[in-house]
Amino acid sequence: MALLRSIATAVPDHRITQAEVLDVLAKARGAALPARLAQILGNSGIDQRYLACEPDYYLEPRSWTGRAEIYDEVGTRLAHRAAGDALDKAGLAPAVIDAIVLISTTGTMTPSIPSRMIEAMGFDPSTQTIPVFGYGCAGSVLGLRLANDLAAANGGQNILLVSLELCSLSYDYSQFDKKNMIATALFADGCAAAVISGREGPADAPSFRAFDQKTWPGTCDMMGWEIGHTGFDLVLARDIPSFVTRDFAPFCDAFLAAQGLAKSDLSEPACHPGGGRVVEALEAYFAPELPGIPATRDVLRDHGNMSSPTVLFVLDRLLADGPDKPILLTALGPGFTAALGIVDPRGAA
Fold it and tell me: Cys staple from 147: which of 1, 95, 161, 226, with CB 3.0 to 4.6 Å?
């Protein structure tokens, strides 16, 4: 299995507090939010987030063209920043990267962002580019699995993984309903990059032990996008927390058992937070063996739900604390799909 040489993160310039988000929602609605809805949205576990644009931008009519321009401008800038920082932390030059994998479900470009990065950042012209669309919130864990597999090819390769989401571009106040208000209260923008290597590296570098995923039949309507008139329209089921208890928990149990691990053998897991209720369901699953998932809560509080990059933000925080037990990665995304992985923080077990 491959080494995880580095992780780096980047967020846009526009910071907004949750209280300011509720003010924007009321302004868009033209009236104060109903007390019960304001309470639900205010108790999301989020204090602040970062957005691609100033808040007033999201109250204006927009087109596919306008959203694509923002994705190009802001997304490219974030991808370059995170990728450059990840390479610097790994001590590797762009020229030694064999493939660039981009995970993104909130926008797309042709030529892709990885293709444009080659000349702009000094990658070798032979660098393989692999843009992946559609993984949604499960994207980082599934992307790490793909990067791990690619790192094993050709006798060992260096892979740059970039996970980029501008979720705010999906907000559409021409369809101002409860679903869009919940999306506005939860989702945010951000980017993370990681360098994964199948070549020799530092003996104490984190390494991957195993991955797995499962897509449940009859669940395609739980999460995803529909193509709207002005952009992507969110599809989001209400019962994801109960899904964690009913369906995700036994799948995770079986995955850990196959690796000869119990929950008590783990360091704090790196989980995609989803929202406050999803975090509570995950904490209930890990209890009492693990006391909680504070790093997941902290990332949700400070950054909101950035979709695919969020798990990498959490994992970056956990690795900075120097854990000595395996770290479980978990994420739920469109399909409806669970993605799992295990990182050994001090090299191969």
Answer: 161
